[in-house]
């Protein structure tokens, strides 16, 4: 069976030009003795907005792997796919993130929920999970309620999983199940029920992405109670360990954190818990490479800086349209967005300082960063003018991309500083 290594990091590359610069960050980690598997992820939503085909991600990744002579594992993730969107991802992906968030809460026929409760007497009236300081008190009606809320979604995950098996072959891909794009965080008991149900469906799930509490806005830091997150993260890991032995799920099953990128304030807690428990982690980042791209474009000055300013001005004009697909995961304060006429006078350094995620920097503007984060559609519309300038600005873009991944993400999460 194709298995995912203990540490893996999902990276996004909107325009498929930065795979080499990204891979260099993983090579730096390998050089320091820590193996982290790169997983290139691009969701159907991103492909639709950019107008790209899934094949382009695999091609760019393969080229980077060949050029840098990367001889360790790497994967291509069909991110957040459903039965109606999976087809074009099947030939070129070996990692599938099955997204069932939309079906959470669709009512399960009562007899099916009852059958689940009967099948799982171990889930009530309490579950003792090693590593969870308190006993999880449950009862039959609570388990029944949770089953009612999730079984339709899990059955759908099963259908999609079997569809991929049929079209690609058993054991030829890595399966992730994601439920992060939903309004409410899942409790450890809910996670346990979900894992039991996935095992009933015989889904060989290797990573699971629950919704954690707090906000995971795109490209900016975590907004929530960090101590609460650490407790939840620890309990989820304990639940996973329990479920692996109890339900015979894959040994390497681990948590996937759909970070939306740059959740710096939870990196230290995550690292602490991983050290303590020996657990693995998949951390998904997404749009920050595109932000490094536009920052590097600005740093190139001249036409690059002019285009970066133009993209901002147009993104501002079309803020509502660009924000709509991401409404649940951004928090832009319109009053904090500078006027295009002011931005027009910025130096390359001012532009970069406003975008770059340096929380200590006074010029850093999180609203502007989030607007640009969702503004990649504008760059896509520029077509060859954008792509050509990005290629020509490799000298200022590539180091940004590598350093961002290595210094801000890989180091705090996985390396001894
Ligand atoms: Zn996600």
Could you walk me through the main structural features you see in this protein, from its secondary elements to its overall organization?
- Helices cover 51% and strands 11% of the residues.
- The protein has 2 domains: 7-286, TIM Barrel (Alpha-Beta Barrel), CATH 3.20.20; 295-406, no CATH class.
- The chain has helices spanning 19-31, 44-50, 54-67, 110-119, 140-168, 188-200, 226-247, 264-277, 288-299, 302-317, 319-323, 340-344, 348-355, 366-374, 376-382, 384-392, 394-414, and strands spanning 7-11, 37-43, 75-81, 95-99, 126-127, 136-137, 174-178, 205-209, 254-258, 281-284.
- It is globular, with a radius of gyration of 22 Å.
- The longest helix is centred in the middle third of the chain and has 29 residues, at 140-168.
- Helix 1 crosses helix 3, helix 1 crosses helix 17 and helix 9 (288-299) crosses helix 17.
- The chain is of the alpha/beta class.
- An 8-stranded parallel beta barrel has the order 1-2-3-4-7-8-9-10, surrounded by 5 helices. The protein has a two-stranded antiparallel ribbon with strand order 5-6.
- Helix 8 links the parallel strand 9 (254-258) and strand 10.
- It starts with 6 loop residues before the first strand and ends with a helix.
- Bound molecules: zinc ion.
- Zinc ion binds next to loops.
